[in-house]
Amino acid sequence: MLLVLGGAWASVRSAQAVEIAISCGAVGTELDLCRDGANAWARRTGNTVRIVSTPNSATERLALYQQLLAGGSRDIDIYQIDVVWPGILAPNFVDLRPYSQGTQAQHFPAIIENNTVGGRLVAMPFYTDAGVLFYRRDLLEKYGVAVPQTWDELRAAAQRIQQAERAAGNTRLWGYVFQGRAYEGLTVNAMEWLASQGGGQIVAPDGAVTVNNPQAVAALGVARGWIGSIAPPGVLNYSEEEARGVFQSGQAVFMRNWPYAWALANSADSPVRGQVGVAALPHGAGGASTGVLGGWNLAVSRHSRHVAQAADLVMYLTGAVEQKRRAVQAAYNPTRPALYQDADVLAANPFFAALYPSFAHAVARPSRVTGRKYNRVSNAFWNAVHDVLGGEAEPAAAMAALEQQLRRLGRHDWGRERPPR
Amino acid sequence: MSGSARTLARTRVRSAWLFLAPTLLVLAAVAGWPLLRTVWFSFTDADLADISSDRFIGLANYLEHDQGEWYGVLADPQWWGAAWRTIWFAGVSVSLETVLGMVVALALNVRFRLRGLLRAAILVPWAIPTVVSAKMWGWMLNDQFGVINHLLMGLHLIDQPVAWTASPTLAMWAVVMVDVWKATPFMALLILAALQMLPTDCYEAGRVDGIHPVRMFFRVTLPLMAPALGVAVLFRTLDALRVFDLIYVLTSNSNSSMSMAVYARQQLVDFQEVGYGSAASTLLFLVIVMLTLSALALTRWRADGEGRA
């Protein structure tokens, strides 16, 4: 009798307090933010959380997730997933609609649509992202240069300031840094060049391969011209944090990055504190300013032992209170339109108001149409671009070869029908 | 008498098998089974997302003719690029390691004070896990903050920082350099062991005849230690053909700096194509097996030739 009672008591206890493991990104201050948020939930509910830190490169993180999920691992309950992954990982996650109780309507509809695969809501939006241009306000003022609107203006401004500053003894200054390593980040950067100069989105929403067009070829030619002149040759091995390292230590005039760099560039120990401005990315003659949609979402593994508690933590972390805290403390963009009118959020991030259209209408990567093949499309694209930037291939030839490669990949309608064997 | 000897031999053989059994079982479980499974997967269209629903598709992962075009690993120019790059890497790095290892071993074979300390010290690069040394070198080679650029600029050898790991061509040389730094101690150790086994009488005879030390090295030392050197080179070559972590951590990971192992992993993990990736792994395995067999055949043929001579 005692034994039965004891057993029942233990099971009640374990149903009450569980340990939820959550994978968080570790770019910049992300890990600390995530830990604080999850711990706040843990204190409220009496559960405990375990934070699992993951690689900084999105490409490596996806590889890790795929291995864990394919093995049916129970080690992680909540996965932080990139906006382009729902199509690849959807079968591994539970439908969150029973737990969200309609609150998904408070987020940007485009992200909710992106996270809905086959009618199932597989992830809740955690924060959104769009590429923005960071600039050194002090240097632009010193040389009387306006914030560049077009890529030509960016090049001219970068070149002028770089030359003048180097002549004045600042020999290690570069004009422009971005993400040029052969990984997902390069796909994002290059898509911004293409889309902002009328070069399309690699694969059109109807599945047609459109990447081989004159505007795209010209856009890559422009970008190749930066390497070694306004951008350091090493940019070919930079991801977000390497680019931020150069910019934040005062060695670059312009930087393309995600908004998270704002809070860090203005942190107490930053050499460029208070001297940084943020603007929309430049555009070309044939296009409008474009930031590619980034951002991360929280999904609950279907292998989790505590789905209900994990989903509750997801709802807490994606809730208005937590998203506001993250925006104020570390400039992570909320996925809730209402927070862009919040006085505290705008006081911490003045550029949120001016750049609201960039965030609300960011261009999506072709992950929906290419589905589970997205990863391969992106890989082929970033490799072609990397070869062009590194001078190993001519833009026109690289785009022609890429077109052929993507056509091969896209045979059988991007793998929606299984090929006849 | 002979009967009891035969019984004794049989008992010894039986106990030998008994002692070997655990090793063989563990080997079969951790090496044999995964290997067979990989080979099996290479004939299927298995997918990492749902690994149980695989279908047998024969050799299609290796080579397949579909609608007028060739598909499969052997029709992929990227795989061929990776294969030649891997062989180039193995050739260059192992050659450098052999020459440098020989120099280091000859130096350490001489009696001097603190020799024991130095012998231990040169092993440090070999003892560091490859991932750690790759990351460490990645920071030292960094184009903006790297200590290597700082040193070279201080010595006025370069006037602009060099982006060592950015372009694929330069990055492969950086990979070779780090591999040489890491594996030379291993080579030196094996060669040193061989040097110390050499009979001293040949040298005494040579010294009496007044033969020049350089001539002595090429005519006495090198031929005597050829078998040991061959084994060391073979070990390193097999290792170099499997190169993965150095390239993965150090370079920008573009297709232009991919080795065969990186290619296989990309297909297996990044693209979730377990079938296709297994075919790439199996091909890598076959390349290594063929190289090993031909190296063994070569040494046996040479040994036979010398035996007959």
Descriptors:
heterodimer; A: 421 residues; alpha+beta; D-Maltodextrin-Binding Protein, domain 2; 4-stranded mixed sheet; 47% helix; globular; disordered C terminus; B: 309 residues; mainly alpha; MetI-like fold; 2 domains; two-stranded antiparallel sheet; 12 helices; 72% helix
Can you give me a brief rundown of this structure?
By secondary structure, chain A is of the alpha+beta class. Chain A has helices at 2-16, 30-45, 58-70, 86-89, 97-100, 109-114, 137-142, 151-167, 184-195, 214-226, 240-248, 260-265, 307-317, 320-330, 343-348, 351-354, 356-360, 367-370, 374-389, 395-409, 411-415; strands at 19-24, 48-53, 78-82, 116-117, 120-121, 124-130, 132-136, 174-177, 252-257, 276-279, 293-300.
List the helices and strands and how they pair.
The complex is a heterodimer of chains A (421) and B (309).
Chain A: H1 2-16, E1 19-24, H2 30-45, E2 48-53, H3 58-70, E3 78-82, H4 86-89, H5 97-100, H6 109-114, E4 116-117, E5 120-121, E6 124-130, E7 132-136, H7 137-142, H8 151-167, E8 174-177, H9 184-195, H10 214-226, H11 240-248, E9 252-257, H12 260-265, E10 276-279, E11 293-300, H13 307-317, H14 320-330, H15 343-348, H16 351-354, H17 356-360, H18 367-370, H19 374-389, H20 395-409, H21 411-415
Helix pairs in contact in A: 9-10, 9-19, 19-20
Chain B: H1 2-41, E1 64-66, E2 69-71, H2 77-109, H3 115-121, H4 124-127, H5 130-140, H6 147-154, H7 168-197, H8 201-209, H9 213-241, H10 245-250, H11 260-270, H12 274-308
Antiparallel strand pairs in B: 1-2
Helix pairs in contact in B: 1-12, 2-7, 2-9, 7-9, 9-12, 11-12
